[in-house]
Design brief:
Family: Belongs to the FliQ/MopD/SpaQ family.
Protein name: Flagellar biosynthetic protein FliQ
Helix content: over 70%
Oligomer: single chain
Low-confidence stretches: none
Strand content: under 5%
Pfam family, one: Bac_export_3
Largest sheet: none
Radius of gyration: 19 Å
Subcellular location: Cell membrane
Keywords: Cell membrane, Cell projection, Cilium, Flagellum, Membrane, Transmembrane, Transmembrane helix
Number of domains: 1
């Protein structure tokens, strides 16, 4: 395996990681923003109020995106294993 192919594999790994992490992080960000706006409007400053909606939002996104995540990880794993075969 040459250095450019290792760099390409590393780039692909980071890209897959970003694609897997983005939906839950964006759901958490959006939920936190909405709850913060509601807290600012109602002047309720309870830090634990954000926790449960964020957990529910992240769990919902993970359930909805589960099939996509498995498909993406399977394709990436197959490409890594096929590259390992070519090395040996």
């Amino acid at each position: 395996m040459t250095d450019p192919s290792v760099a390409l594999m590393l780039h692909e790994a980071l890209y897959v990681t970003a694609r897997l992490a983005a939906p839950p992080l964006l759901a958490s960000l959006a939920t936190g923003l909405v709850i913060s706006i509601i807290q600012a409007v109602t002047q309720i400053n309870e830090p634990s109020l954000v926790f449960l909606p964020k957990v529910v939002a992240i769990a919902g996104v993970l359930v909805m995106m589960g099939g996509y995540s498995v498909t993406l990880l399977t394709a990436f794993s197959r490409s890594i294993f096929s590259a390992m075969i070519h090395v040996g």
